[in-house]
């Protein structure tokens, strides 16, 4: 285009910013920003908002905040991009701080704002702040939104307020897969394993097909509730009934299921035959060795953990505890060298 002597205008630059955002290409995004600055386009508020969002999607909150702070007037898109960026990168305190700043500036929140803020509240298990956000959602007339209700169920579940999560779930007329998954996980985290299974069965009766997240939750439930046979059936149905590919998380849950049930031989064989077993898989087996006091298996399992993650102390500490419990300290010193 430029070789033909045609200079890019605002529309072209907006398209370039969007392309860099979609690709997550920070280097190219910064080059576009330089061109914008040279041409004086970066003072345009709509372009500046796009840049904030681009930097956020490329993982550069420093760049996003720099552009945001230089804007003459921050619009809703720029506020949402900044809040979302902090929430996505785990800086939940800053996400809530920007949200409060936004309110003080008189900018009204929308659905996108609330989704990011609820994520931040959930991460911090900030129940009272979450309740305040919930009240704002109701006052804005957005309380019928399925996505926001799902986020609220997740919030209340993580914050230990099971009654609030149940109340929202029971009142929902339109429940999607995320709704069901959130409620299954909530009951599981509260030790209500039987109810988790009931919700899973009801979900299927309602015609909602489970996904990989659903099965991770169900395998977790079966493992911690001691439902070995149900867990094995659940694992088998992933491929047999739903033609889904097994994920690393599925395998890790089954390792835990086998280990907790005392089937340590099968668990060890499964880990050893995984295409690319990681330290987490061996740590899961090591945890089962602790439960059943299998010190010999624990030693060779800890050695595999050390090979895959030499800097990790978790395996060494767990092995030490296993030997301390078994009062058998012979040969364990080699894992610490």
What does this entry show, briefly?
With 337 residues, the protein is mostly helical. It has 19 helices and no strands.
Stated plainly, the CATH topology of the domain at 247-337 is called Serine Threonine Protein Phosphatase 5, Tetratricopeptide repeat
The structure class reads: mainly alpha
Report on the biggest sheet: none
Bulk shape: globular
**Order of SSEs, N→C?**
HHHHHHHHHHHHHHHHHHH
Q: What percent of residues adopt helix (DSSP H or I)? A: over 70%
Uncertain spans: 1-5
Number of helices: 19
* Average of the residue pLDDT scores: 89
Nearest-angstrom radius of gyration?
A: 25 Å
What's the total count of β strands? 0
Organism: Selaginella moellendorffii (Spikemoss)
Pfam families: PPR (PF01535), PPR_2 (PF13041)
PPR repeats: 75-109, 176-210
GO biological process, one term: RNA modification
Q: What report would you give on this structure?
A:
This protein is mainly alpha-helical and 337 residues long. Among the domains are: 1-73, no CATH class; 247-337, Serine Threonine Protein Phosphatase 5, Tetratricopeptide repeat (Alpha Horseshoe). 72% of the residues lie in helices and 0% in strands. It has helices at residues 10-23, 26-39, 45-57, 61-70, 76-88, 92-104, 111-124, 127-139, 146-158, 162-171, 177-189, 193-205, 212-225, 228-240, 248-260, 264-272, 279-292, 295-308, 314-326. The radius of gyration is 25 Å and the shape is globular. The protein starts with 9 loop residues before the first helix and ends in an 11-residue tail after the last helix. InterPro entries: PPR_At4g14850-like_plant, PPR_rpt, TPR-like_helical_dom_sf. Keywords: Repeat. GO terms for molecular function: RNA binding. This is Pentacotripeptide-repeat region of PRORP domain-containing protein. PPR repeats lie at residues 75-109, 176-210.
């Amino acid at each position: 285009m430029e070789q033909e002597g045609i200079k890019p205008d605002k529309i072209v630059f907006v398209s370039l910013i969007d392309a860099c955002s979609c690709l997550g290409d920070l280097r190219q995004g910064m080059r576009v920003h330089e061109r914008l600055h040279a041409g004086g386009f970066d003072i345009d508020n709509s372009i500046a908002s796009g840049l904030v969002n681009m930097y956020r999607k490329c993982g550069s909150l420093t760049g996003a905040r720099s552009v945001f702070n230089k804007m003459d007037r921050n619009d809703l898109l720029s506020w949402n991009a900044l809040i979302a960026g902090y929430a996505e990168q785990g800086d939940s305190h800053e996400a809530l701080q920007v949200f409060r700043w936004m309110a003080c500036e008189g900018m009204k929140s929308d659905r996108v704002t609330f989704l990011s803020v609820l994520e931040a509240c959930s991460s911090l298990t900030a129940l009272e702040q979450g309740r305040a956000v919930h009240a704002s959602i109701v006052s804005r007339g957005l309380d019928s939104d399925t996505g926001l209700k799902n986020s609220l169920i997740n919030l209340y579940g993580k914050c230990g307020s099971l009654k609030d999560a149940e109340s929202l779930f029971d009142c929902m007329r339109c429940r999607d897969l995320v709704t069901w998954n959130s409620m299954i996980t909530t009951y599981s985290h509260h030790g209500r394993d039987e109810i988790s299974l009931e919700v899973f069965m009801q979900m299927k009766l309602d015609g909602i097909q489970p996904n990989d997240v659903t099965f991770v939750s169900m395998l977790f439930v079966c493992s911690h509730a001691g439902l070995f046979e149900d867990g094995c059936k659940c694992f088998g149905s992933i491929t047999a009934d739903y033609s889904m590919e097994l994920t690393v998380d599925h395998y890790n849950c089954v390792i835990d299921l086998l280990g907790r049930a005392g089937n340590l031989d099968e668990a060890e064989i499964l880990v050893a035959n995984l295409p690319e077993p990681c330290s987490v898989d061996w740590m899961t087996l090591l945890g089962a060795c602790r439960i059943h006091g299998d010190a010999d298996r624990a030693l060779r399992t800890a050695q595999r953990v050390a090979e895959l993650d030499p800097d990790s102390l978790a395996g060494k500490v767990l092995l030490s505890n296993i030997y301390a419990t078994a009062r058998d300290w012979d040969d364990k010193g080699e894992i610490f060298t």
